[in-house]
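name: query_chain
kind: protein
chains: 1
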Amino acid sequence: MPSNAKHPDCPLCHTAGSQPFARLPLLEREADYFRCPTCQLTFIAREALPSREEEQAHYALHQNSPDDAGYRAFLARLAEPLIAQLSASAEAGAAEIMGLDFGCGPGPTLSKMLTEAGFPTLDFDPLYANDPYLLTQQYDFVTCSEVVEHFHHPAESFGKLRSLLRPSGTLAIMTGWLTDDAGFARWHYRRDPTHVCFYKPATFGYLAQQWGWQLSLPAANIALLRAPA
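structure:
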């Protein structure tokens, strides 16, 4: 069944016929949102996606710094369960564990926290640290902090993330979970014009099942997906 404006295919799992979910104001336009019945992804219509210029203008408002204790505390929600998992691997005799922070932004901080904890982490960002060579390598872990909600082509982007991981590698994700459908219109996360995909825990469960990976949800908004050995 081909895609159409009323029932587009899911951009993550490609299920045909996603259902209309909401029509809401975003920036200076109305945006249609859809819900996939298979993977439970909620996504914005393609015609309402922000332009690269709109994205860059919004990103320029971010003031993140590794010297900001509050920002470090925020990132610790992802870093701490990942470090616990990596520490267990190190104790089991794994060689040096190397990672990549995918979508590090203009003030790389998570990579510094992980490196300080003994797990060297490189930085990649398509706007602020765009080194294509890093995407030709594989890593023991890849972090995505407040990144996956920006994906315009989530199937392709998650495919790239999978390709970056070695066997037994971990994909560590932090993103705001959509758990209150009734409050979607008022949700601050939805009102960010660069947020175009919204995930439920079930969405990560679907990915883990499809990939044959192990899923851990150690805290709200945190998902750790571990590849098989």
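note: The CA atoms of residues 148 and 225 lie 14 Å apart.
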